[in-house]
Amino acid sequence: MKKYINNFFKGHERSVKAKKNILASILIKGISMTVGFLMVRVTLDYLDQTTYGIWLTLTSFLTWFTFFEIGLGSGLKNKLAESLASKDYKKGKIYVSTAYAILSLVVIFLAIAFFIANIFIDWTIVLNTNEVSLQDLTTVAYIVFSFFFFRFVIKLIGIVLFADQRPALSNMLNTLGNLFVLLTIFILTKTTEGSLIYLAWALSAIPVVVLTISTFYFYTHDYKKIAPSIKYVDFKYARGLLNLGIKFFVIQVSGLIIYQSTNFIITQYIGPAEVTVYNIAYKYFSIIMMGFTIIITPFWSAYTEAWAKNDMKWIKSTVKKLLNIWMMLSVAGIIMLIFAKQFYAFWIGTEIQIPFKLSLVLLLYFMTFTFGGVYNMFINGVGKVKLQMYTSVIGAILFIVIAISLAKYTDLGVVGLVLASIISNFNGIIIAPIQYKKIINNKAKGIWNA
């Protein structure tokens, strides 16, 4: 065993670093997954199925605001990684400081716009419900969005950790926040009646506290040399951050439409209760995505470094290994499908029934999404994302047309929306593998190399 472990940690320094992060992330994500499943169970005990569906739909709106960072995080990830690799800490400090300044300005604008708009929003209409009063829903919206705007800025510490090829540590911060949230909700179930307002305080405030403490710690210890400072804000560097970031922004917004608007469409065309059914099945099969993400995340910055050093041999070898891992995860997904009914019964009981066909299409969704992810991680790492940007916009339009059509004119229900997501992901299934081969073989021209 000792010999096997020693051999596992041999090889290219870039690969060894990735392996260490993968192993650490497996432990952290294992805890996170357990906490996530328990949180669903505890929250369902605290709220009824319909109210929980309302909560899921309301909080899904937060994702829309997340992407107003205009891809700044992705731009910072690449630029800071380059600065750290060359030990140019002054430039790194400028990039970090400027990123915080830009996001702070964005947050101020968004907060003012939302707080004015929220006065006029009738959340009972937006969420298609009379189960919760308009006053309570408005209060919940104020709580959730207020903490979200603060978190919008301080979450940049996670990007800094990613840029330094420490994604496991970044994930640990989220896991700690969720663990404290779980404990708080459990206490609420024992001390209060089901309340969206109490739930909003727990789920919104606690992660912000964890990130705030972590930000202060890292910038006074590990990253003291690049800690943000008003004196180092230089908007001339914003162009470098935003040039690539804008492309990622378009991709992220398109992905948001395709993958994150499902709850809203289900609520409007099928009913809030089905949001709960969808999310339970989604969370179960998202284990595949979670496992894939653990493995592939460390390679973004690694691909950037390898590309800069023209290490094509390492890139090709890594992509082949990741494809083998994808096939193993697909087999694991099939096993999950076979035992899905038994797991649902163990996890949430028999009150909520999850159709087999929903489980089947979600498995296909995650298999196709992770397949494309093998290639898109490389494409993102080397910054050749213009084609991905265009295909993502086309995919978003396709999703809207197909999803609403299937929801309105067929009896497929939630299954139809998942099928729409799969079809809309034609970039990952078809385009990304072709682009990878063109780039790696030095045959990419025009938009394939932009």
UniProtKB/TrEMBL annotation:
InterPro entries the UniProt entry points to: Poly_Biosynth_Transport, Polysacc_synth
Q: Which domain of life is it from?
A: Bacteria
Q: What is its main location?
A: membrane
Localization, per the record, is: Cell membrane
Report TM segments. Answer: 21-40, 52-73, 94-121, 141-162, 169-189, 195-219, 240-261, 281-303, 323-348, 354-375, 387-406, 412-434
**Which GO terms of the cellular component aspect does the record hold?**
plasma membrane
Q: How does it sit in the membrane?
A: Multi-pass membrane protein
Keyword list (alphabetical) reads:
Cell membrane, Membrane, Transmembrane, Transmembrane helix
Annotated Pfam families: Polysacc_synt
- Put simply, this protein is called Polysaccharide biosynthesis protein
Organism (species): Aureibaculum marinum
